[in-house]
Structures are given as C-alpha cells and as structure tokens.
Amino acid sequence: MTTLGNYINGERVASESGRTAPVFNPATGEKRLDVALSSADETRAAIANAQEAFKDWSATPPLSRARVMFKFKELLEQHADEIAELITLEHGKVFSDAKGELTRGLEVVEFACGIPHLQKGEHSLNVGRGVDSYSQMMPMGVVAGITPFNFPAMVPMWMFPVAIACGNTFVLKPSEKDPSVPLRLAELLTEAGLPNGVFNVVNGDKESVDVLLTDERIEAVSFVGSTPIAEYIYSTACAHGKRVQALGGAKNHMIVMPDADPEQVINSLMGAAYGSAGERCMAISVAVCVGDEVANHLVKDLQGAIAELKVGPGIGEAIESHMGPLVSRQHADKVIGYIDAGVEEGAELLVDGRNFVVTGNENGYFVGPTLFNHVKPGMRIYKEEIFGPVLAVVRVDSYEEALALINEHEYGNGTAIFTRDGDTARNFAANVQVGMIGINVPIPVPMAFHSFGGWKRSLFGPLHMHGPDGVRFYTRMKTITARWPTGLSAGPEFSMPTMK
Ligand code: NAD
Description:
The protein is α/β, with parallel strands linked by helices. It has helices at 40-57, 62-78, 80-91, 95-112, 115-118, 154-165, 180-191, 206-214, 227-239, 262-274, 292-308, 329-344, 380-383, 399-408, 422-431, 467-473, and strands at residues 3-4, 6-8, 11-13, 20-25, 30-36, 122-128, 131-139, 142-146, 169-173, 199-201, 218-224, 243-247, 252-256, 284-290, 348-351, 370-373, 390-396, 411-412, 414-418, 436-439, 455-456, 459-460, 475-483. It has two domains: 3-248 and 458-480, Aldehyde Dehydrogenase, Chain A, domain 1 (3-Layer(aba) Sandwich); 252-439, 3-Layer(aba) Sandwich (Aldehyde Dehydrogenase, Chain A, domain 2). α7 links the parallel β9 and β10 (199-201). The longest helix is centred in the N-terminal third of the chain and has 18 residues, at 40-57.
C-alpha cells in the first residue's frame, strides 16, 4: 500500500520517521493509503530548504512571481476534475461541492496574480524640502501553514498563494486525514515554474507542528482548525516571537424573521446546514426563529425538504448525492454522541440521522440529516460545535432576543439574517458580534479580494486571511526617509526633526 511522504525542494520524498497514519475513503470505509507522520528533524530539513530558497525568491521581481501564479491558475483549471475527485475520495464531500471548494481556492490564486499592484507600497514626495519618504512591503521569510481536513484544497490556498506571491517561502503541514490534494498542488506549483524549495509540504502531526511553532527560522504561522488547537497554536507561536493568525471553530446562527421569504429561507438553510454534511466552518447549525409561527412553518418545511435529500457517495452515482459521509468513523461517532446528548437534554428530535445506512455503502461513515426542535441555549448541542449534519431550531420572541443570543455565544465566525426589512438588516450588521455576516445570504464567505475571519473564539490574532489582510500578514513594512544634497539644512539640528 502507498505511503505518502513529503514534498521538499521541488519533489516528493519519502519520510523515514517510521510513523504513519491511515487515510480512508469515507464513503466506503476502505483504507486508501498511509500518510507519513514526519519527524521533527524532517520538518527542520523542510524549513532549511525553504530558508535557502528565500534568498532568491524574495529578490525575484513581483511580476515574475505573478507569472508563476498565472500559470498555476491555468494548471488548476486543467486539473480541476482530478483534484476534485481526490477531495471527494478522501474527504467525502460530493464532487460538485469539491469543485466549488477548488474554485474558491483558485480565486485566491487569481487575487495573488495582482501582487505587483498589491505590494507597491507607498511613496510621499517632499515630506520636507528635498526629503522623500517611501514604505516597502517586504516579504517576511519562511512562513508556515497548518490546515484542517474539511477543505484540503481551499484552506491551504487561503494561505500559500498570497504568501508566496509576496516573496515568502512556505512550509505547509496539511491535515493527515486527506493529504493527497496538498501534495498534488505542490506538484502543479513546480510545473508552473515555482523554484524548488519555495513551497514545501510536510505531512505529520503534533511533532511537526511543534517544530513549526518554535523553530526560530519560521517568521509567521497561519492556522485553521478547531478552537482548542487554534488557541494552543496562537499562544505557543506568539511566545516564540512569531506573527500568528489562528482561525478556530464556529457555531453559526441564522435568524429567520417573520417577514423573510419562506422559499428563500428553506433553500438557503438546507444547503447551509447539510451541505458538506455540516463539515464547514461557515455551516449554519442554529436556526433562530422569531416567533412560534415562524418556527412551526420552518420545521414543517425542513422535514419535507430533508425527506427529499439524497445522501450517498460523493462520486460515481448516476444522480449526484446532495450530501456525502463524514470524514472518519471517529467523527461520525462523535456526531452521533451529540445527537444522543440532545435527546437526553430534552430537545425534540424531529429527524434522526443515527443508524443511517446507505445501501451498497454500509461501511461508509454516514450520518443522516438530523433536525432538533425546541433547542435551548443551555444545551450542549447549542453551545458546542458539532461539525456534522445536525440543525438546531431555537425559538425566541423578538429580534432583540435573537441578536443577544448570538452575541452571547463564544464563537463569532459567521451569521445570517433573513428578512425583507432594511432597518432590521442594517441594525443586525451594525450590532452583531460576528466577523462575517450574510443578509439573505446563508454562507457569507468573503471573496478572495476581501478577507476571511471571525471574531471572539473563532479567530486568534488581528489579521484575517487572504484579501488585503493576507498581504498585510505576509509582509513587513519598511519605511525609508531619504534626503539628497539639495535638501540639506544649513547646519546640525538637535531638536526633533519637523517639517520646516
Ligand atoms: P483540528 O484542530 O483537529 O486540526 C487542524 C490541524 O491541526 C491539522 O493539521 C492537525 O494535524 C493539527 N493538529 C491537531 N491536533 C494538534 C495538536 N494537538 N497539536 C498540534 N497540531 C494539531 O481541526 P480539524 O478537525 O482538522 O478541522 C475541523 C475544525 O476546523 C473545526 O473546528 C472547524 O470549525 C475548523 N475550521 C475553521 C475554519 C475557520 O475559518 N474558522 C475553517 C475551516 C475549519
């Protein structure tokens, strides 16, 4: 059976750590291959390579760096089906969703193609007579990315296209659950003309991650994953003097106002709650209905729509499934444990996804779409991130109560409101304590030229990912003040220099 290794200095290399983890096809439960869990020394070797490559890459003109990105974009388009298939085979999400993920990553590559403009810096002529001042956005050096299982293409591409385009070199530690795609992306970068050593992939676990957080040659760390690990990454890497952005978990609420369009609500909610089997950090897992009448209608509509949902393998079916399996047996069991907890805590289970069997795929990690009614804020299924196809319907009496509920929650990644009323929508956008807000848009993931990030315990660090914040994160400002002989003053100045 194949064992995936690392990608160092422009080629795939086997790991000699002797430790591996199995990679499964979640739709069948069959093992596909093993992935190496690299040693600390192997991780250090990848950093050394990236450090060596930085010398020339950081001095490469931004236009040349952009041209590699243009070529990489072309290659991603040519290989889109192949990459999407790999995503489906290891993550489980349906093929069309995998292609959507790839497109959202590719858009960051398109953004990075504009790096000559984005990295221009600032220039002021005559800050004093004959004195000019300019700021340059310098690359940082070797930067690291640590990514989760749920977007094996898109989340790494939130990071490395911008980082590399800015002139940095990169070490990626992807999820050990679906490692094939990042290695394929690395190969395509080499084919696009990226010099060896600029982008490296180290497969591994905590042993590799800890090297990336502490090695003095790493300048910045980008992380996306669960909140406890995000917090660990942030505190450890900050303590070692690195710039850090660590994106964590989520519990995204959608308010349904009495004046919302019912058809728009049901279509949006079905996709946002059950798309990708709920394994999205921007999935909606709580519907907050303002008034019992709204809630009663919604749960009836949801039950009808859930009955129509096609759950099955993400690829190879005559009619494509809407929803695939969860990523692993352990994760499916965890989600089932939450459904048990919801029942024990007294929520009304309207649709039960436990014991869900897909004929022909009996060993797949399927959990059916699940719907809870009358969920209360004290319950675990309300407070904690489940990361599965489990939707909780909560009832409140007013918009103010709905807003307060969201603001009191520990997470603040995404949220949405469905209403026809502009005043309510505007008030919501102004007052909700969440980073990404949808108004009649269920999954408000910002486009590549804006930045992605949550608030509260969904993000540790000041800067969001990609867009303008991405360029800020991966560059360091240097400001030069220059005076030429024509601007010289008559004699020495002992007071603080000011504009005369
Ligand atoms: P995870 O936190 O388990 O793993 C993320 C990465 O950290 C992986 O590369 C993993 O190998 C590594 N890791 C795991 N345990 C570690 C440890 N003890 N020390 C060092 N490194 C460790 O997350 P996951 O299960 O892969 O992904 C799902 C989570 O990611 C969910 O909580 C989801 O909300 C979150 N997520 C957040 C966003 C966002 O934008 N906020 C986006 C996608 C996913």
